[in-house]
From TrEMBL:
Gene3D superfamilies given in the database record: 3.30.310.210, 3.30.70.330, K Homology domain, type 1
UniProt-listed Pfam families: KH_1, RRM_1
Protein name in UniProt: RRM domain-containing protein
InterPro entries reported in the protein's UniProt record: KH_dom (IPR004087), KH_dom_type_1 (IPR004088), KH_dom_type_1_sf (IPR036612), Nucleotide-bd_a/b_plait_sf (IPR012677), RBD_domain_sf (IPR035979), RRM_dom (IPR000504)
GO annotations of cellular component type: cytoplasm; nucleus
Family that this chain belongs to: Belongs to the RRM IMP/VICKZ family.
Amino acid sequence: MNKLYIGNVSEEASAVDLESIFEQWKIPYSGPFLVKTGYAFVDCPDEKVAMKAIDTLSGKVELHGKLLEVEHSVPKRQRSCKLQIRNIPPHMQWEVLDGLLAQYGTVESCEQVNTETETAVVNVRYGAKDQARQALEKLNGFLMESYALKVSYIPDELATGPEGPGLGGRRGMAARGTPRSGSPSLGARPKMQSDVPLRMLVPTQFVGAIIGKEGSTIRNITKQTHSKIDIHRKENAGAAEKPITVHSTPEGCSSACRSIMEIMQKEAVDTKFTEEIPLKILAHNNFVGRLIGKEGRNLKKIEQDTETKITISPLQDLTLYNPERTITVKGSIEACAQAEQEVMKKIREAYDNDIAAMNLQSNLIPGLNLNALGLFPGGASGGVSPSMVSAPPAGPQGAYPSFGGQPETETVYLFIPALAVGAIIGKQGQHIKQLSRFAGASIKIAPADGVEAKQRMVIITGPPEAQFKAQGRIFGKLKEENFFGPKEEVKLEAHIKVPSSAAGRVIGKGGKTVNELQNLSSAEVVVPRDQTPDENDQVVVKISGHFYASQVAQRRIQEILSQVRRQQEPKPAPSGPSLARRK
């Protein structure tokens, strides 16, 4: 089916106007434009042309001052479990996309479509129509690495599986098809590779030598080191350096790194380039502190053992959505290769330790989707191994136990330094809007209690996963913006309101429950005595600690409140005729 729906059409627009736009962008059409009030329809010769029209025109071309919206025309009766998702970042990892899609239900298949666009396109089949509908509503316009996803229904005849037009071979979350040359590709996940790939920055002038004539050099490196190497040529157009991602075992990554350094050195000699070419490694900021070590001991030891000089880019260079720091290593190729092994060993150890901590969270929040949280490196720096994460249960309602079939909405009051309010809000409120959309939560900053108030209250409302994501980003932002010292852990106070009748359950007999909670979470948990309940007959529970500690405590308290609510629910009256007891 190649019929297109054209939306947001001005009342002044005519069929001739639309014809001229299609002709201007060299998009063939096989029938007349059917123009209605505010929208129009047209047939394309084939699916490839229809895709080109969508990618070229939708949200990009204006007609009489209004941006056109172009998508497949799918009648309501044909809307099924199948969606097409476009404008996916070209270097996005499959694990991250899988995690995002799984939030809305059971994904039966996800297949990459070959296109001529810079971004990637996939066709997705959900287990139920309402799951597909929810995914479309939530993901259409969703920002991923500054790319706004475009989601539309596809009718049955367009999603025919691997034998269909232009589809890769991924069926039932199995192997993915190989895109044709030049087609953008989601980062594949080779077997037995490290969960943390090696990320390098190389001078743009050496990229051609690394790739080689018709890709011969990079193919040789890939073959010899048993690795998958992505050179992100289209990132940061005009930049002096380009990132390279190497997916392999730690040994394969190191071997590829050495080969790339040798190629750059040879190219420098051939082109009479006299400046020193250091090794530059990109690492997620979550791991850099542990690489440096207490008082810089880890880094000093690596420098001494490998006879290199190592510097790390400052925190000020980070942004919330680009959280990598540059580790610059200077020395001989042999010395830099040894330093790479030691640096990445520390980075991978930090990652493994964080996975263990996150697994605790996934147990405390049943089905917590770690890939979707965005607290670990995503498309750029490796994803969470799927074997370490329990998948969310099938069904449209997500991963959380709830009443009435929907995730329970929670409100948490998080207290941040008053001076940090501007950083959280961002210029013209852009940052807090982006954060709210990313987390799927309502985020509001309450007015100050007074001119000299040292803290401000952030009110976060949303289900458990939204709470985790929003609070995690706020903790991270405060660290990145230097509101806490380089060796100081970010610790914040959070308040949860509980019914006054349930406060005793949180405290426990003789304080037993609250003491166990503090021992489990390492957070300080206080239910202030002699509180006067508010107008909703609620009192405050105060939680103080670092991010993971606070999350453990919050989840346990919410679990207690869920138990209280279940016990207070009226038991359903027996229905139907009662059976006489057999004598």
